[in-house]
Every structure is written in C-alpha cells, then in structure tokens.
C-alpha cells in the first residue's frame, strides 16, 4: 500500500518531486527521466508510470531554468524510441513461444492473422496515437510485436510518434507550464492528461466492438 500511495503522490505531484530531485542531484535528473520513460514504454508490466505529465513538467522546469530543454528533449526522445523498440522486440520474441501450438488453448491462428493484417494496415497510426494514451502506449508496441508487424514499418512510426509526443507535450510545458493559472490548476491538468485519453480509448474500443458485432449480425 505504501508503494501505491507513493506512486499516486508522485504522479499527481510530479512537479514537486522532480524539482526536488533536480535541486538534490543536479544532472542525474536526465538519467531519471530516461529510466521512467524507457520503463513505461518498454516494459509491458509498467504502464502506470507517468508519461504525459512527466513530459509537461519537464518542459515547465526547463522553461524555469532548472534543466536544459534541448538535452532533456534528446534524452526523452531516446528513451521513448528505445522503449517502444524494446517492447516490440519482447512481443515479437515471446509471441511465437507462447503461441507455439496451432489453434491451442493459447493460440488461434485466425485471430493472429487478423491482428497481423490489422497492424500491417493500421499499425502506423495506431502506434502514433497510442503515444498519447496512458496504458495503451505501453501495450501497443508489444501487440505490434506479437502480431509480427514488419520491423521497418514499426520503427518508422515509432520514431514519428516519439517526435510528436515528446516535442509536442514538452514544448507545451516549456511555454505554458509556468503560467500562474497552470501552476494553480496543475493537479487538475495532470488528471486530465491521465483520464481524457483513457476515456477516449475506452470509447473507441467500445465503439469498435459494437461495430464488429453489428457486422457479424448482418452476415
């Protein structure tokens, strides 16, 4: 329980924790940023770590002069790209080992072929949009690996998605993170960064499932 309480407090008050870390440890903050983003995007069992809020607060701290914006962005980009590549590699490696029997309890060939076809056709936009959705951005590259999305195609959209995600949110934090209104409502903004993309993802999944059932009923 103490670990969970600490994680919740860290996520909701990441500005104070990160600022205190910078003051206490200086340049080691760049290593901390790399670890958090890499683990959140690269280890499929760690989807609860802060992502969007971390980028925003990092940009704000850079705007306040606590960190170098170019260096922070470079570290975050490297972590985001390598994290997704690691997650993809885990999925691509473990998939065949877990699903080693044709049409077994754990594997359905038809479902696998459908997933593969989906990621070959829509995987690019899925990887990019998933960057902005907590939890989903952790699982999307893993599923892409399991579905055997081509490595070159995944890598291209991984880099594009990381650039848009890191630059977009950290730049917003750099220019707007130190405004008085933003600082006074930071906890609400962090909740918004967590809940809004998540609710949109849930709605999208529900709608896709409903449309799928409708198509099946029409056959």
Automatic annotation (TrEMBL):
Pfam families: VTT_dom. Its main location: membrane. It is a multi-pass membrane protein. The chain crosses the membrane at residues 28-49, 56-82, 122-144, 156-177, 189-206. Keywords: Cell membrane, Membrane, Transmembrane, Transmembrane helix. It comes from the Bacteria. Residues 49-174 form the VTT domain. It is found in: Cell membrane. Belongs to the DedA family. NCBIfam families: PRK10847.1 (NF008102). This is DedA family protein. It comes from Comamonas terrae.
